[in-house]
Amino acid sequence: MGRVLSSGRRVGAHRRGLPYGAGSHSAGAPSLLQVIRFLLDTNVASFLTKGISPPLMRRFRDTNKSDAAISTITEAEMRFGLALLPSEAKVWRTVPPFLREIAIEPWDSRCATRYAELAARLRRTGHPMSAFDTMIAAHALAYDFTLVTNDKAFARIKGLRVEDWTKGPQRA
């Protein structure tokens, strides 16, 4: 499950469980090969930078840092959000460190192919989603990632594994 990333990006050297930019940072070793299992949706990445969901913060802290990544689509959405805000805004202290420290998976031709198929299917069935959400779902499908989101709209996508870490532990 997941995909091997060999980008050589420096991955997660922050103190897990705190909003990004809070607490001390340690020198993490670069990861040349890592298997990504979880792709974090933009809403989840945003929650992490704001520290607003204790269950999410706990689950993220307890997850192996090399198991989670964001898509370049999420990176673009987060950078756009920053560009709209003055440099004094609080998120300027948390979003840039988050983007430096988390693995960022490139959106490639394989993702584009899945996007075209998925967007067409959703439109034909009368359930289109935003382009960015469809692109993120296609990214997760293309590389067999589990999408971490609290957006219930993703649950209707056939074949997409979805987990909501903003809720407490699921009880059987």
General description of the model:
The strands form 2 sheets. A 5-stranded parallel sheet has the order 5-4-3-6-7, with helices on both faces. Strands 1-2 form a two-stranded antiparallel ribbon. It has 172 residues and is α/β, with parallel strands linked by helices. Helix content is 38%, strand content 12%. 34% of the residues are buried. The protein is globular. It has one domain (3-107, 143-163): 5'-nuclease (Rossmann fold, 3-Layer(aba) Sandwich).
Between the first and last Cα atoms, what is the distance in angstroms? 24 Å
- The percentage helix is 25-40%
| Oligomeric grouping of the chains | single chain
Q: Provide the CATH architecture.
A: 3-Layer(aba) Sandwich
Count of distinct structural domains: 1
Mean pLDDT: 84
Strand residue content: 5-15%
| Spatial ordering of strands, largest sheet | 5-4-3-6-7
CATH-defined topology: Rossmann fold
List keywords for this structure.
alpha/beta; Rossmann fold; five-stranded parallel beta sheet; 6 helices; 12% strand; globular
Gist?
This protein is of the alpha/beta class and 172 residues long.
Secondary structure elements and pairings:
Blueprint lengths: L2 E3 L28 E3 L1 E3 L1 H9 L3 H9 L5 E4 H12 L11 H7 L1 E3 L3 H16 L6 H12 L3 E3 L13 E2 L9
Parallel strand pairs: 3-4, 3-6, 4-5, 6-7
Antiparallel strand pairs: 1-2
